[in-house]
Design goal:
One of its GO terms (cellular component) is membrane. It catalyses: ATP + protein L-histidine = ADP + protein N-phospho-L-histidine. The chain is α+β, with helices and mostly antiparallel strands and 427 residues long. Among the domains are: 146 residues, no CATH class; 138 residues, Heat Shock Protein 90, CATH 3.30.565.10. The protein contains 13 helices and five strands. It is rod-shaped, with a radius of gyration of 51 Å.
Length: 427
């Protein structure tokens, strides 16, 4: 719990305790005033007072009135109309008792304290004025004496009104502050409730976001591994199979057979190395030791030696280091494009052009092979070709680039991968 909440809780406890004490005094004081007045009537009778017996009878009736409304039915205090009846009866008994004996001014004084809890705001002033008149009559020596000296009685009434009015004013201000404080405490409680609900909702949202992020991470890693497996193991295994098939066809010629077997072994070792680097999410070995243009030249040379097709690699613009992910994307695109040429194109020549421009780097791979008909449908997945172009497009799109494919039957194929020229480390 915060310090503000603890302070509010402490203030609420003190306010509740004060209200409990106020409610107790509200119910006890009438009996105290009535008992004190009755005691003085019995011990020190005032001159020109009513006889003791009828005075005590009026006092007993007043006591029963209070018992009925306050003691036996404490819940009635929230019923304003009923409590207005109680207050009118209280003032009636106070007037009668003050007329019977001035000592009951101690009881009439209760009219000040009971005006606030039981009367609406517009009637409190009337209750205070009436109480001031009764108290002034008591202070003047009783009804008979006060009326015989009415100027003095008026002065006493004005004095009581000033004193009671001041007290009433401050009491009303205190009541307004109390209402404001209760409203603020209610608003604070509502704000705390909403804050608690918001925290709970945020906790649930946070957990949901964590779950979604974890699922997205798993999906992204699966896609990455699928691309890496295709670009390393699948292409390597395809090359190995091709070399072994060629070795099978040339087993009568020892030199050709040995060359194809050696090529298959080299492909197997290279694929194994690349697979391990892919699992560890490490850049291809050629990019670790060479710049991208050199890596493409090396790739084109190896591919030509394996497939017996001439591959020309050219670079335009000023080569510069790129972001590692961008260089890996272009290298993998070149590998996939050459793999597709070897499997499907039956080409006699392939050209790779790496173009460095101000904001974009483009890799173009063109062949003079058989080509194919471009449609809106994905390519068939024979020999993995469909997934190859899909993986290539995913790679290029992932770094904010675009992949374009142009082809027609008998007219060869051109693949262009354009990616942002994001800067990388030193070359």
């Amino acid at each position: 719990m915060s310090g503000d909440a603890m302070t509010s809780s402490g203030g609420h406890d003190r306010l509740t305790s004060w209200r409990e004490r106020e409610a107790t005094l509200y119910r006890v004081l009438p009996y105290g005033g009535l008992a004190l007045g009755t005691l003085l009537v019995l011990v020190v009778p005032a001159p020109r007072s009513l006889a003791t017996a009828p005075t005590l009878a009026i006092a007993a009736a007043a006591g029963c009135w209070i018992v009925w409304f306050l003691t036996l039915h404490p819940g009635w205090q929230s019923r304003r109309k009923l409590m207005a009846v109680y207050y009118v009866g209280l003032l009636t008994f106070a007037a009668a008792l003050v007329a019977a004996s001035p000592w009951y001014g101690f009881f009439a004084w209760i009219g000040y304290t009971h005006a606030f809890p039981v009367l609406p705001k517009r009637l409190r002033i009337a209750g205070v004025i009436a109480t001031a008149a009764f108290v002034a009559t008591s202070q003047g020596g009783g009804l008979a004496i006060a009326m015989s000296h009415w100027p003095l009685w008026l002065v006493l009434v004005l004095f009581n009104l000033v004193v009671a009015g001041s007290v009433t004013w401050f009491a009303m201000i205190a009541e307004l502050e109390d209402a404001k404080r209760r409203r603020l405490m209610a608003e604070l409680g509502e704000a705390n409730r909403q804050l608690t609900e918001t925290v709970q909702e945020n906790a649930g949202l946070h957990a949901q976001l964590l779950t979604q992020a974890r699922e997205a991470g798993v999906l992204d890693e699966r896609q990455r591994m699928a691309r890496e497996i295709h670009d390393t193991l699948a292409q390597g295994l395809t090359g190995i199979i091709t070399q072994l098939e060629a070795a099978e066809q040339t087993r009568d010629r020892s030199a050709d057979w040995r060359r194809h077997v050696d090529n298959a072994l080299a492909l197997a070792r290279e694929s194994l190395t690349e697979a391990r680097r892919s699992v560890r999410a490490v850049r291809p070995e050629t990019l670790e030791t060479s710049r991208l243009p050199d890596a493409l030249v090396e790739l084109g040379g190896r591919w030509s030696a394996l497939n017996g097709v001439r591959a020309e690699v050219a670079t335009t613009g000023t080569p510069r280091p790129l972001h590692p992910e961008v260089e890996v994307t272009l290298l993998r695109a070149a590998q996939e494009a050459l793999s597709n040429v070897a499997r499907h194109a039956a080409a006699s020549r392939v050209g790779l052009t790496l173009s460095y421009m101000t904001d974009v780097v483009t890799l173009d791979v063109r062949d003079d092979g058989t080509g194919f008909e471009l449609t809106d449908q994905p390519l068939p997945r024979e020999s993995g070709s469909g997934y190859g172009l899909t993986a290539m497009r995913q790679r290029v799109t992932r770094v904010g680039g675009e992949l374009a494919v142009e082809s027609e039957p008998g007219g060869g194929t051109a693949i262009s991968a354009s990616v942002p020229a994001l800067p990388g480390g030193a070359g």
